[in-house]
Specification:
Blueprint (H helix, E strand, L loop, with lengths): L1 E6 L3 H16 L3 E2 L6 E6 L1 H10 L8 E6 L7 E3 L4 H10 L3 E14 L6 E5 L2 E6 L4 E7 L2 E14 L7 H4 L11 E9 L12 E4 L4 E5 L5 E5 L2 E5 L2 E17 L5 H9 L3
Helix pairs in contact: 1-3
Bound molecules: NADP nicotinamide-adenine-dinucleotide phosphate (NAP).
């Protein structure tokens, strides 16, 4: 099996990453940064987001596992003192894979420019460069509402515990192949009206966001911020691709939610 190790880059994470590499070398596993079967990410959930984007072109052939050097994470669920155990698992046992849904985002531009396609593990957020964001929201080809407010956030189920949660969105179990649209401070009065609740869309529903006046936006895909100019539409749906996590022991999603947000 071929592996690679990524690190958040702080002293502790780098030291643990070196330890993991040394152990795996002892087990005679081959290090392959270009085409790994497994990526061991050491840091936090943010580090795993970066690892995901580094290998998003080979999701069918790469599985991820995360070691958390801070508090317990959603994607990074192994503790530093468990690293030896994890390495033995990687070296000795064929791992089980758990697949989580991803968000596909296609940005189309006015004029000749080619459309751009992105995959998000957590979410895509859209904000205006200046003033309020005003967009028509179409669901399955039908106009649903005209949104006016600070911004919109379209998240995956595993991303529902991140930005989406801060916006009052629901926490979705990652076995649900769906995406969730959450509002950021919508303007609601006698002139403007939005639904006000987060919407959960199934796999076969596409959401199309069409600018009403401004065409330049700040779009984030997970930790990446992109300036998108001259936008005609932003299309969001559940991606065909899935992310694969290597699971060596059960760690139920609701236990992770409880331990992260309620108590250990
Ligand atoms: P950051 O601002 O440095 O950290 C964002 C925080 O979100 C970190 O504590 C990170 O955990 C945590 N996180 C990431 N994915 C998560 C998930 N799926 N469930 C629960 N917590 C999660 O930014 P970053 O490290 O580059 O991460 C980018 C993410 O930040 C975005 O995808 C977005 O979800 C999130 N974000 C949140 C808010 C908000 O809550 N108001 C605003 C903007 C962006 P670790 O410490 O383990 O890395």
């Amino acid at each position: 099996m071929k592996y690679t190790v990524t690190s958040r880059g702080d002293k502790t994470s780098d030291a643990i990453a070196r330890k993991v590499k040394a152990y795996l070398h002892e087990f005679e596993l081959s290090h392959d940064k270009e085409e790994p079967d497994i990526v061991i990410s050491v840091g936090g959930d943010g580090t795993l987001l970066e690892a995901f984007h580094a290998y998003s072109h080979r999701l069918d052939d790469t599985a991820f596992v995360g070691v958390h050097t801070g508090h317990l994470g959603f994607y990074a669920d192994w503790q530093p003192d468990e690293v030896e155990k994890l390495v033995i698992h990687i070296a000795k046992t064929p791992f089980k894979v758990v697949e989580y849904p991803l968000l596909e985002v296609i940005v189309r531009h006015n004029g000749e420019r080619k459309s751009e396609r992105f995959l998000a593990l957590n979410e895509c957020s859209i904000k205006s460069m200046e003033g309020s964001l005003v967009m028509d929201i179409e669901i399955k080809g039908e106009l649903f509402e005209t949104f006016r407010g600070d911004g919109l956030c379209m998240s995956t189920p595993s991303g529902s515990t991140a930005y989406n949660k801060a916006l009052g969105g629901a926490i979705l179990h990652p076995s649900l192949a769906s995406i969730q649209l959450a509002e950021m401070a919508s303007i609601n009065n006698r002139v403007y009206r939005t639904i006000g609740s987060p919407l959960v869309l199934p796999q076969h529903h596409t959401c199309l966001l069409k600018p009403k006046n401004d065409v330049d936006f700040q779009v984030t895909i997970d930790h990446l911020t992109l300036l998108q100019q001259d936008v005609k539409s932003i299309q969001c749906r559940v991606a065909e691709e899935k992310v694969r996590f290597a699971r060596f022991r059960p760690f139920p999603f609701w236990k992770r939610v409880k331990e992260s947000f309620i108590h250990d």
